[in-house]
Each structure stands twice: as C-alpha cells, then as structure tokens.
Amino acid sequence: MKLATYNVNSINARLPVVLRWLDECQPDVVCLQELKAVQENFPAEALENAGYTSIWHGQKSWNGVAILSRIGQPEEICRTLPGDPEDTHSRYIEAKINEVVIGCLYLPNGNPAPGPKFDYKLRWLDRLIAHGQSLLEQGPPVILTGDFNVIPTEFDVYKPERWVDDALFRPEIRESFRKLVTQGWTDALRKLYPDETIYTFWDYFRNAFGRNAGMRIDHFLLSPAVVPRLRAAGVDRQVRGWEKTSDHAPVWIELD
User: Fold this and answer.
1) pLDDT category, 253, cuts 50, 70, 90?
2) Can you give the residue ranges of the Endonuclease/exonuclease/phosphatase domain (predicted)?
C-alpha cells in the first residue's frame, strides 16, 4: 500500500498537476492539505474519474484537508481535531482505510511569532499531542500525516540560522513536536534515511528550488503497529519542478 501526503496550495488551481501526479505515481491513499476551496467546490468528480473516492473538509480561501483512496471508500471518523469546539479552521480529517486509521492534518503556520497566531499554533499542537496519545492507546495501526509546519531539527532546513525566530523552527515548536513523537510515533522518512538531506518545501522566491534551499515540514508519523510494515519512503521532488505547481512536493511511504 502506497500512501502519500501533498500540500497542494489550492486544489483547483493545481488540479492539472495533481491529476498528472496521480497518474504517474499511482499512490493508493492520498492526504491533501491547503485546499483553499469551500466544501461544494472540491473537485470530487475529477478525482473520481481518476480512480479516487474522497472525503474532504473545505474552507473559503484558506486551509482545507482531504483524504483520497483508490483501494476502498475512506470511513470517516472525524473532521475536526478534538479539544476546542470553537476552532472552525478546517485543518484535520481522520478516516479508516483497510483497518488503518489515517489522520490528515494541516498544522497552523504560526507566524508572526510571538503573537496570537503563534499562541494558536502552540494550542493546536497541545491538542494534537492529546489526540495522538488517545490514538496510541486505542491500539489500531495509525498514521498521522500532512503539513506539520514544523522543522524538527537543524538538519531539516537549508541554513537553519536564518530560521531561528520563525514559528516553524522556534524552540517551543520543536519541543512540542518532539513531545508528540516521543509518545511512541516513528518519523518514517528519518527511520529509513537518518542521515540524508531531505526537503519537502521550497519557497517560490529567490530560486529556492533551483538552489535546493528547502525545508522538511511534511511528515509521516507511524504508530508502533505500522512501523514493521514500512518498506520504502521518498519525496516526489520532480513535481515541484512542474509548471504552476505547489511550493510543496508530495511525500510518500510504502507499507506491506
């Protein structure tokens, strides 16, 4: 089973890119973030024609998450991260596919920091930590994946000294991510490639992609029941070089 995560940076603007990528790379399950589309404008029919059934949670202008599958209908579990009933941002959706629970998330950016957006990011991470613990305690195979907007270590960003005051890299954020992972999750890409430079995002400015001045902020976290099934992982870096593409590249794993 091949699973992928992809921040599309507007599903309708990038639909030709997404459809081309689906056709060429053939993932079985896909988690999408930053749809930037209201619920009724999600291109479910075009994706169905490509062989994928979908569940999604849209939002006008910003945010938005979706789970696609070509190996069975996703059984939706929830479409909000527990812990704050007043949080209306569409940043989390969870489903079961072939007995694997998949949480697709788009964690807040948090800039500028410090400030209200940074405080919201910290609260969101606290809720994710609590929900992550609950998922681990329930026992089934679980995968948390998406755009975490967290650079875990200096090894995960080009010239880390430039990012010390950014909300993606501030010590509080990295510590929260570390706290989440040490509950019992495994960072899939680092499990297989502990020493390689791996980026998943390159800014549109200053020829960042051409210079490989990127960062790794799109992650797969695996529960203990999933880790023995991990066989491969990677980044479809070539997609970032296509015309009218997202500033992220798709990230994928393969499981037995």
Assistant:
1) very high
2) 4-248
